[in-house]
Amino acid sequence: MTAETSQTLDRGLRVLKLLADTDHGLTVTELSNKLGVNRTVVYRLLATLEQHALVRRDLGGRARVGLGVLRLGRQVHPLVREAALPALRSLAEDIGATAHLTLVDGSDALAVAVVEPTWTDYHVAYRAGFRHPLDRGAAGRAILAARQKPVGETAFTLTHGELEAGASGAAAALMGVTGVEGSVGVVMLADAVPERVGPRVVDAAREVADALR
């Protein structure tokens, strides 16, 4: 901590991060141990966060992330999109295919940023806001595959004809970005994805991940 920072705010943010990293919630005692502060401080932090709906406590007293974070989350997509656009533009121009950033939205994959190449005669029409099940298409499959991989290990996923007849896709998951689960990919009208596209998509995913850290 420095003279310019708030210790209370820092602790409150740490509480939210700890709760976001668990599916079953945490007790006051568990939070006290993890933060290295006494239970009274934790009670005050939780009470304040509850007033803003950022934390909720179940009947057993376990604290969990509250629905108030959803209102904050709605503002995340524009920020993520802006950070990803330079890498997406470079990818689209290099490959000559439509590049996209896709994020998890419940059980769906949601395209939040799309860039089309400027020099090709034709390309796949793929729009921001397009959604599809996570288990269909390269973008969603790359995200699902990343959930099974060790942290830091990135690979690409290839598909053909799963979302649009005659279209092939390649995508790689964003790795190491706290609070963001998604992928970067391209979609093209081709029977197969050229060999160089997979590694190029992995590089673009790393560029986007670096921009979001």
UniProtKB/TrEMBL annotation:
Record domain HTH iclR-type: where: 6-67
Sorted UniProt keywords: DNA-binding, Transcription, Transcription regulation
MF GO annotations: DNA binding; DNA-binding transcription factor activity
IclR-ED domain boundaries: 68-213
Domain of life: Bacteria
Matching SMART domains: HTH_ICLR (SM00346)
Gene3D superfamilies referenced in this protein's UniProt entry, alphabetically: 3.30.450.40, Winged helix-like DNA-binding domain superfamily/Winged helix DNA-binding domain
One of the GO BP terms on file: negative regulation of DNA-templated transcription
InterPro entries: ArsR-like_HTH (IPR011991), GAF-like_dom_sf (IPR029016), HTH_MetabolicPath_Reg (IPR050707), Tscrpt_reg_IclR_C (IPR014757), Tscrpt_reg_IclR_N (IPR005471), WH-like_DNA-bd_sf (IPR036388), WH_DNA-bd_sf (IPR036390)
Protein name in UniProt: IclR family transcriptional regulator
